[in-house]
Amino acid sequence: MSKKHIEECVRTSLEGYFRDLRGTEPDGMYDMIVKVVERPLLEVVMAKAEYNQSKAAEWLGLNRNTLRKKLVEHKLLKS
Fold first, then answer.
1. CA-CA distance, 4 to 74, in Å (whole number)?
2. pTM of whole model > 0.90?
């Protein structure tokens, strides 16, 4: 799967989101999208990195402490 394919999946999902709103204006979309995308991103990357936080942080381009904070926020790791 290419970057372009992921972009198209996001675009299609957003079009569906707006269609489902039926003219109602969205609120707080940025935070909602980040949370909705971030959790599965972290789940998949952690699994592929065999739950090695240092490796996962490197793949994501994050500081390891930032990754830990995000894992706790998403309840994927106990604090």
1. 27
2. no
Query: pLDDT tens digits for 23-52?
Result: 999 999 999 999 999 999 999 999 999 999
Residues in the chain: 79
DSSP characters over 22-56? TTPPP-SHHHHHHHHHHHHHHHHHHHHTTT-HHHH
Distance in Å from the first CA to the final CA of the chain? 34
3-state secondary structure of 9: helix
**Cα–Cα distance, 42 to 52 (Å, whole number):** 12
